[in-house]
Amino acid sequence: MMIAHVTIPLILYALFPTHIELLPLLFGSGFPNFDVFPTLLRKNPPKNALAETHASTILHTLFLYIVLLPILYFLLNSYGIVNGWAIVMSFSLGGIIHVLSESFDEKGRRLLYPLSKKFYGIRVLPYDFWTYLTDKTIICFEVALLVLAILLLLIRPFG
Ligand SMILES: [Zn+2]
């Protein structure tokens, strides 16, 4: 998943603009990828990309975004932020969309963490960055999502 981490949230925002806060949604949708740094800073390509840290930490679990809901809501509320629930829900929604959409790659994601450390998913997409970026079908899919997001944002069907 590349630009889909932006276009899928934008599509949801275009469909439900009164329920979703855009910036927390986009921040939440990018948040899981903070665990990419060990991968970016490595000196040599890993022998087994599927075993690397990226997408294997708690940042890529559904659990984190459910647990963070009440904690972040309490924090925002204690600072007197009135629409804290919408902000927190949008952030968590972004994180959950990220993890669920990536569960369609060949690595899968730890969807049942902490009950299970196994990676689950419907493995139809490649995990490796370059394989992903050079697949014509995937490029078409990503472009289609981008076009759909732009169209929906222009039309705003329910907004
Ligand atoms: Zn990710």
Note down, in words, how this protein is organized:
54% of the residues lie in helices and 0% in strands. With 159 residues, the protein is an all-alpha fold. It has one domain (4-41, 51-155). Helix 1 (4-15) packs antiparallel against helix 2 (22-30), helix 1 runs parallel beside helix 7 and helix 2 runs parallel beside helix 5. The protein starts with a helix and ends with a helix. The structure holds zinc ion (ZN). Residues 32-33, 55, 60, 98, 102 line the site of zinc ion.
Major pleated sheet: none
Distance from N terminus to C terminus (CA atoms, Å) equals 27 Å
Radius of gyration: 17 Å
Low-confidence stretches: none
Proportion in helices: 40-55%
- Which class best fits the helix and strand makeup? mainly alpha
| Average pLDDT reading | 92
The number of domains is 1
Strand fraction band? under 5%
Give structural attributes.
159 residues; mainly alpha; 54% helix; binds zinc ion
Write the layout of secondary structure elements.
Blueprint: H1 4-15, H2 22-30, H3 37-40, H4 62-78, H5 84-102, H6 129-133, H7 136-155
Zinc ion binds at residues 32-33, 55, 60, 98, 102.
